[in-house]
């Protein structure tokens, strides 16, 4: 006969074993060059992931701009997801090949803010991020601009320069795929803090899901279009989450940025989101910061 206290002990051991089995998701942040303050923003990205208790985070930093890049050869395959906070010199050919293979074979990738300005000459990278801006991109060379109208994606083939934003102001973000795991359970419309609202991004725009948009206000030098802010892209077996938000640490304090980033990294890594929507999420009219 088994004593009751032994049974309780056994059950508790099982619970402990189950929790221990949920191994943390391994994340690699890449940085080292950017026209943004990457030395300030990478520690914020790292902390935001670590504070969920679901991730362990390493950082791979490239040599500085203009230096020999041949030493930059991270072992992407050791991670479930790579987050780019990089916008700079081309990577060595071997690293480019390794990264393409990594995502094509099912590795996760997250393009954060100006990472979608990077590598205009790298075709596979443009396919991963779907759309990008600046870097002398023109719509006629890179692919259509992506706008949202009439409840669906509209590919805008008019020629033009890709990548623009007005002054940093608060703006509303509207979910367009509310059942997507990254945003499921979050408010349909929420007020983001002062940030750059990217407009006129262009690219191959293949295998693209627009998760959320924002209206680019002509009164703030905008396009008058609903522009993609959060996107999900398939590249081979890999999942890509593309967030245009988070210009600086102040913009990254928005709970809307924080939560969509944390959930987007988990989704890119695993295809699932286990994080619950928080209680302090912004509403349609009020920002919320942490
Ligand atoms: Zn910016």
Give descriptors for this structure.
6 helices, two-stranded antiparallel sheet, 24% helix, binds zinc ion, 290 residues, nine-stranded mixed β-sheet, alpha/beta
Question: Any overview of this molecule?
Answer:
This protein has 290 residues and is an alpha/beta fold. The protein has a single domain, classed as Rossmann fold (3-Layer(aba) Sandwich), CATH 3.40.50.880. The protein is 24% helix and 24% strand. The protein has six helices and eleven strands. The chain has helices spanning 4-21, 38-50, 93-104, 123-129, 139-142, 255-270; strands at 25-31, 55-61, 81-84, 108-112, 145-149, 152-156, 169-175, 189-195, 208-215, 226-235, 238-243. The strands form two sheets. Strands 2-1-3-4-11-10-9-7-8 form a nine-stranded mixed β-sheet, sandwiched between helices. The longest helix has 18 residues, at 4-21. It is globular and about 45 Å long. Bound molecules: zinc ion.
């Amino acid at each position: 006969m088994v004593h009751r206290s032994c049974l309780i002990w056994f059950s508790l051991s099982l619970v402990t074993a189950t929790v221990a089995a949920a191994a943390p998701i391994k994340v690699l942040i890449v940085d080292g060059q950017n026209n943004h303050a990457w030395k300030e923003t990478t520690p914020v990205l790292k902390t935001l992931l670590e504070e969920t208790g679901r991730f362990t985070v390493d950082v791979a930093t490239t040599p500085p701009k203009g230096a020999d890049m041949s030493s930059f050869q991270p072992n992407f395959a050791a991670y479930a997801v790579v987050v780019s906070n990089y916008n700079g010199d081309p990577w060595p050919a071997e690293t480019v090949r390794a990264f393409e293979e990594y995502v094509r074979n099912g590795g996760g990738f997250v393009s954060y803010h100006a990472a979608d300005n990077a590598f205009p000459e790298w075709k596979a990278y443009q396919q991963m991020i779907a759309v990008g801006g600046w870097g002398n991109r023109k719509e006629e060379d890179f692919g259509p601009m992506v706008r949202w109208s009439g409840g669906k994606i509209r590919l805008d083939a008019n020629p033009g320069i890709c990548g623009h934003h007005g002054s940093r102001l608060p703006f509303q973000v509207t979910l367009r795929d509310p059942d997507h795991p990254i945003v499921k359970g979050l408010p349909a419309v929420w007020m983001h803090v002062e940030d750059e609202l990217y407009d006129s991004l262009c690219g191959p725009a293949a295998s693209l899901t627009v998760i959320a948009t924002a209206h680019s206000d002509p009164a703030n030098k905008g396009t008058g279009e609903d522009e993609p802010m959060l996107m999900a892209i398939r590249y081979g077996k890999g999942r890509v989450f593309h967030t245009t938000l988070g210009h600086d640490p102040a913009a990254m304090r928005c709970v809307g940025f924080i939560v969509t980033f944390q959930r987007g990294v988990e989704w890119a890594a695993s295809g699932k989101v286990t994080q619950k929507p928080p209680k302090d999420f912004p509403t349609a009219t009020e920002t919320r910061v942490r």
